[in-house]
Design brief:
mainly alpha, 5 helices, 188 residues, 7% strand
C-alpha cells in the first residue's frame, strides 16, 4: 500500500473514532448528570470543538472522506443540541430539588429578634414565605392557612429550636410538608 493510501486509511479511521466518541458521549453525559459526585465531567464541549474544527489534509482528501467529515460534523451538531437539552433538564431538576430543601443561611439567625433583624435576614424570611406560597400553588392549594406574620413567627421559633439541637456539620433546611400544607425547617 502506498503512503497516500495509508494516510487516507488513517484519516478514515480517525473520523470513525470521532464518530464512536460522539455515540459514547451520550452515556457519559447522562452518567455525569445523574451522579456528579462520582462520575467525571464528560468534557463534551472539547469533543464538539475538536470535531467542528476537524479539517482534512487536502493532499489526502477524497469525495468519500469529505462526506464522512460532513456526516460527522452534522452528527455532532445534532448531538450538541440534544446534550444541551439533557443539561438544561438536569439543571431544572436540580433547581426543583433545591426548592424542596432550601438551606437556611446564617443571616436568618438575626431574624430571631424582629426589631433588630437586618434587611438581609428579613429578605431571607421573605424568600421562605415566597417559597411556601409557590409550593402551595404547585400542589394546587389555593388557600393559605397562615398569614405572613404567623409564618415568620413559626420560622423564627423553629429556627431557634433547631439551631440549638443541630450539630456542627449539620445544616438547617426548608422542606414542604404536603399533609400540613406548610414549609417546615429541619436538620440535614
Amino acid at each position: 500500500m502506498n503512503p497516500l493510501d495509508q494516510r487516507r486509511k488513517q484519516a478514515a479511521a480517525d473520523i470513525q473514532s470521532l464518530s464512536r466518541q460522539v455515540e459514547e458521549m451520550d452515556g457519559k453525559i447522562r452518567a455525569y448528570l445523574a451522579d456528579r459526585q462520582n462520575k467525571p465531567h464528560p468534557r463534551h464541549l472539547d469533543l464538539i470543538e475538536k470535531i467542528q474544527g476537524y479539517r482534512l489534509d487536502p493532499s489526502v482528501s477524497t469525495k468519500h472522506l469529505v462526506t464522512m467529515v460532513d456526516n460527522l460534523q452534522w452528527k455532532v451538531h445534532y448531538s450538541k443540541r440534544a446534550w444541551k437539552q439533557f443539561w438544561e433538564n438536569a439543571e431544572a431538576q436540580r433547581r426543583k430539588e433545591k426548592a424542596n430543601t432550601v438551606p437556611i443561611t446564617e443571616n436568618a439567625k438575626a431574624a430571631q429578634n424582629e426589631e433588630l433583624a437586618p434587611s438581609k435576614a428579613q429578605y431571607s424570611v421573605d424568600t421562605l414565605w415566597e417559597i411556601q406560597k409557590e409550593k402551595l400553588r404547585a400542589y394546587g392549594y389555593s388557600e393559605i392557612k397562615e398569614t405572613k406574620t404567623e409564618f415568620k413567627k413559626r420560622m423564627i421559633f423553629e429556627y431557634k429550636k433547631l439551631s440549638q439541637d443541630k450539630k456542627k456539620d449539620q445544616e438547617i433546611i426548608l422542606t414542604f410538608d404536603k399533609d400540613s400544607k406548610h414549609c417546615k425547617l429541619d436538620i440535614k
